[in-house]
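Notes, Module 5: Reading structure tokens.

Key idea: the token line is not a picture. It is a compressed description, and you learn to read it the same way you learned to read a sequence, by spotting repeated patterns. We will look at two proteins. The first is printed below with its tokens.
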Amino acid sequence: MKIYNRAVVYFESLIFAILFVAPTTSYSQQDPVYAQYTNNLLTIQPAYAGLSGTLNCTGIARAQWIGFDGAPNTNTFTLSGPIQKYSLGLGLSIVNDRWGPIKQNGVYIDYAYRVKIVKDQYLSFGLKGGFNLYQADLTNLAIWDHPDRIFAYDIKSRFLPNMGAGLLWHSDQFFLGVSIPKVIRNSLPNQDGTKIYREVYHIYGMAGKVFILDSWLKIKPTALYRWAERTPSFVDLALSFLLYDQVWIGATYRIQNSAGLIFQ
């Protein structure tokens, strides 16, 4: 155990030394990333509002790196439903996201309008509007390089309005779409006016289809692609089996990143 702990200390020291001397620029994650995106599509795709045809309420809680100070913690609540008479869908998304010194609370309203293009197929246009309250307790961090103006002041409840748009082609058996949840690139200055961060564009592509294999068995493969400025893109794949129109069993896989199981 002593040898292991000593090796960990040497490794951490090496990493800090590399980061200290290397002339690099780093960018942090802007918005929460979900493994169960198929159950939380409204947060990134406004055209999804009301798509289920009934009132739909979803809550998701995610905690990572349990036991570590400042570990990421995300809580999401979404509510959506259709207004069939006017081919509309309305939605509400509330997101609480915390990681390290950063805290964000977001509230967004979603609006979708559906147009029938052929039998049982629709094109849904979506708009999203709302805001984030952003807070960064930077002065509580342990700083190695003194003095650093970036960490000399906190960011207190910065109001960040934003809007987004999405397009979704869908039927009862498939969907194909693209969305940009935030089109405004807000900048974040600290208390002395120093700009420390600017939001970046995120573009999502999504697709899924249901295949009927038997009267009691259906299979649903889905895929999600995320592109963002100056950060790695990723692809999420999921495969679910529907038994007797009652029970979903499946798995998700983020390429070269993570995997999970689905049961509902």
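Here is the second protein, with the sequence above and the tokens below, as before.
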Amino acid sequence: MRVLVTGASGFIGSHVAASLGEHGHRVVASGRDWSRLAATSAGAAAIPADLVTDDLSVLVKGCEAIVHCAAMASPWGPRDAFWRQNVVATERLLAAADASGSVRRFVHISSPSIYFRWRDQIDVAEEFVPPSRWITDYAETKWVAETRVVAHRGLGPVILRPRAVFGPRDTAIVPRLVAIARRGWFPLPAGGRAWTDVTYVDNVVDSVRLALKAPRDVEGAAFNITNGEPVQVHDLLSRLFGAIGVRTRYVRIPRFVARCGATAVEGLARARRAAAEPRVTSYGIGLLGYSQTLTIAAARQRLGYTPRISLDEGLHRYATWWRTT
């Protein structure tokens, strides 16, 4: 089928576009960064576009499906920017898809950040009630975007919530961790005993292909996507840093102390009206200090999803890529 992939100049989107092309789909790859789009979209029809301001009819023309990967993903930034990039952009894309008359499946890449609470959570399922107070504007706007997508039932919407995606060309998770580790020491809230889930990018791509061909009874449903291998934070970091050759000293810190420190750092950044993300954020401390694992039972049963690349294999592949960049 002819498939539009938004955010194809980014991490997940570039992998999705490449894989769909390799599996015989006719891909329209869209993104704001033309140089990166051209470099990662070989074999696809590459069309640079800003989903917030540009005419989107040319993107969706003749497309039978859309995989919406584009988003502003960060624990830090101005609220209006998150709203434009994650909500307004999604609304405009949905409107263009409706007007095209050809789109029959809309796969939306969302985020399990919506589940975050200041407490340990094990085997979190997809059922969700929004909190009274969101931890980040990113999490809130990703949830609002989900509600917009699900409302367009005529587009056959499917929501995927991949957890902590890593792999070649990752610009979010591992680089942030390495930046902290290279100071010579790494703070471990709760001693690194919290349990977490991660997802190798090829497994996310597999879930996208399954969602594109899934039966109509999945329309409107959301699915957690992970490697299905919960791991403690200390173990994960040790394996990651060992694989890529980064040495650091772990410092165990009580969760309360870590939260207070992050809050102070964020407060100072706001007082200075700093545009750059602080080295430590409350959300980052929360991810490292509180357990959050997801059940992928629904994805297994309804999409036929099985994680193909194990955590160890994913770390090996990532390390191989890391050493060549």
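Summary for the second protein:
- The CA atoms of residues 254 and 285 lie 11 Å apart.
- Residues 2-166+198-228+293-309 form a domain with the Rossmann fold fold (CATH 3.40.50.720).
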